[in-house]
Design goal:
alpha+beta; Heat Shock Protein 90; Ribosomal Protein S5, domain 2; Ribosomal Protein S8, Chain: A, domain 1; five-stranded mixed sheet; about 30% helix
């Protein structure tokens, strides 16, 4: 038999490696930003077009590369970070495997411009699909500029799997946040399709968090500082009242590298135990510094997961540090052993003895004495001369009720009584006996009778279906009514959240929302849909942002559908809410007036039926 095992060509091997390293444009952004940081840059500029599908360019003012380094940087496993296997456990840089640029060059058009400070001229290198097209000398500023164009141009199948521009831009923004938060000493700027999204200068860590997530974030932060032999913690956690339904503001950085760790995240949640509402998550921006020898970061292609030597110790220290900060800044309830000053004895009374109070008793007072009404007894109750009002005996209450004449019976002919007027309905019929056709079970289900047996409706899911079809109708016909607010409602969101609301603004207006102002810092609302209370507006928008971040609609999915689902979920009657008979009957009638009454907007059953035969079988 002939041999069947053969070596893969380099360009095929590079494309396979690219599948691990480059999943979407955000992966390219991450690798290029980390390379710029490793080059000791102090200013980094990110330029993106069409959410990275057309262009991803990173320009830095780092140390640059020589002609030979520029050429070798695109070879597989070519790196300046490690020399031996032992170096993997002493890493202080971002990239180290030497696969990023080679993988990117295999699936895109790459143009590299670089120059070192000592050289007068720099190098321009053009590569298309791992093939070097040209390498020339050029005049370029000190530093490096890498432009990645037409990503996945030679792998159409991978390009088809990319989502819409909105989705891909959100992933790029997430990567930008992770890198920018980890390095507050570096100035970053981010441009998309010619407009600047972020421009964050150098500063301390608090300033960096505020620049990225908005000025309103400053009042939400609680500092966390702890230093032990094993772990050093610095950063901030958010106050419990500003917790969110999403995990969008949760950042762990280990040795200035963003990581995901469900185990450490549980330590934070346990520190917030008893302070958060159900379904809400705390915000945190924490930097953890540990010995590089105690972690292994080479266990995941994107290096977002790392392995710790002693996770249990880190868990205990992190939980204790966060809990201490919440108590220190009076966020969490703490035991107060300090005595209040109000209980202290004044200095003037220190050596004085307590005087016994004087008590005077009216010994002649007898409540059962038979005093005549004509001569009531006057009595004094205290030593200050206060005299009681003339008091008559209890017989005086009945004086005049009995006439002294011959008639001993009272005449009640002129006595009238007040009573509530009884208004009968114009549709009332004495022959019809009113009966209750529905009742509520456990304040969660509505039970109603039908010919075949019994109908049990989930009130929350049923109301979601009713509101969903109602909102979808208003968005479609664009004729929703709005109720104006007496005072504009000002809501503060992060720039990324404002961008989501801006994308959905047209559909929100079709449901009844009226926006007077929409900028990077705040949202002003002057009108809301009819029936929506003002206090629920912020909850509705937060829920909408959460749904969009978790399931952003692409070109094949309806934004109107997502909006209608999100608003229906926020405004639907919750389980545990009591409904009267009229509301129960209205719920049943409205549900079966819907086009799809059988399922909720999330395709869960809204009701079940139990036939009489099934009930009878239970008694056999």
């Amino acid at each position: 038999m002939s041999d069947i095992i053969q070596l893969l060509p380099d360009h095929v091997a590079n494309q396979i490696a690219a599948g691990e390293v480059v999943q979407r444009p955000a992966s390219v952004v991450k690798e290029l930003l980390e390379n710029a940081i490793d080059a000791n840059a102090t200013e980094i500029k990110l330029i993106v077009k069409d959410a990275g599908k057309t262009l991803v360019q990173v320009i830095d003012n780092g140390k640059g590369m020589s002609v030979t380094d520029a050429r070798l940087s695109f070879e597989r496993h070519a790196t300046s970070k490690i020399r031996a296997a032992e170096d993997l456990f002493q890493l202080s840089t971002k990239g180290f495997r030497g696969e990023a640029l080679a993988s990117i060059a295999a699936i895109a058009h790459v143009e590299l411009k670089t120059k070192q400070e000592d050289n007068d001229l720099g190098t321009v290198l053009v590569i298309e699909g791992s093939e070097v097209k040209s390498q020339d000398v050029s005049v370029t500023p000190t530093g490096t500029s890498v432009a990645v164009k037409h990503l996945f141009f030679n792998i159409p199948a991978r390009r088809n799997f990319l989502k819409s521009d909105t989705v891909e831009l959100r992933h790029i923004t997430d990567e930008f946040h992770r890198v920018a938060l980890a390095h507050p000493n570096i100035a970053f700027s981010f441009y998309h399709n010619g407009s600047d999204l972020f421009n964050v200068p150098q500063g301390n860590y608090r300033q960096r968090v505020v620049h990225i997530f908005g000025t309103k974030t400053n009042e939400k932060l609680v500092p966390v500082e702890e230093e032990t032999e094993v772990l050093k913690i610095s950063g901030f956690v958010g106050k419990p009242e500003y917790s969110k339904k999403t995990k969008s503001e949760q950042y762990f950085f280990v040795n200035q590298r963003f990581i995901k760790s469900p185990y450490l995240n549980h330590a934070i949640k346990s520190a917030f135990e008893g302070l958060l509402k159900d379904g809400y998550h705390p915000s945190y921006f924490l930097n953890l510094t540990v010995d590089p020898k105690s972690i292994d970061i080479n266990i995941h292609p994107t290096k977002t997961e790392i392995k710790f030597d002693d996770e249990h110790t880190l868990y205990a220290i992190l939980r204790s540090a966060v809990k201490h900060s919440l108590g220190q800044f009076n966020i969490a309830p703490i035991l107060d052993f300090e005595q209040q000053n109000g209980f202290d004895t004044p200095y003037d009374f220190k050596n004085k003895s307590a005087a016994a109070p004087s008590i005077e008793v009216d010994r002649s007072f007898n409540p059962f004495s038979d005093d005549s009404p004509e001569h009531p007894v006057k009595r004094s109750y205290n030593a200050e001369g206060f005299k009681s009002a003339p008091a008559a005996s209890w017989e005086s209450l009945y004086v005049g009720l009995e006439s002294k004449g011959n008639n001993t019976h009272s005449d009640f002919s002129e006595v009238t009584f007040e009573s509530d007027s009884k208004n009968e309905s114009i549709f009332s019929d004495s022959t019809i006996e009113t009966t209750k056709t529905t009742f509520q079970l456990q304040q969660k289900y509505i039970v109603s009778t039908i010919k075949s047996g019994m109908l049990i409706i989930d009130q929350n899911r049923a109301h979601q279906r009713i509101l969903y079809e109602n909102f979808l109708k208003h968005i479609t016909i664009q004729e929703a009514t709005s109720q104006q607010l007496l005072f504009p409602l000002q809501l503060h969101f992060t720039p990324n959240e404002v961008k989501i609301i801006e994308d959905l603004k047209a559909n929100l207006e079709h449901t009844g929302f009226v926006f007077s102002e929409l900028n990077k810092k705040e949202v002003k609302i002057t009108g809301v849909p009819v029936g929506v209370p003002e206090s629920e507006v912020s909850i509705i928008l937060e829920q909408l942002i959460s749904d969009v971040e978790n399931d952003v609609p692409d070109t094949n999915f309806s934004t109107s559908d997502l909006l209608a689902k999100s608003m229906a979920k926020s405004l639907a009657i919750k389980n545990g809410q009591s409904l009267n008979s009229t509301e129960q009957e209205h719920m049943v009638n409205s549900l079966f007036a819907c086009k799809e009454p059988n399922v909720s907007p999330t395709n869960r059953p809204t009701f079940i039926t139990m036939a009489v035969d099934d009930i009878e079988k239970k008694f056999m």
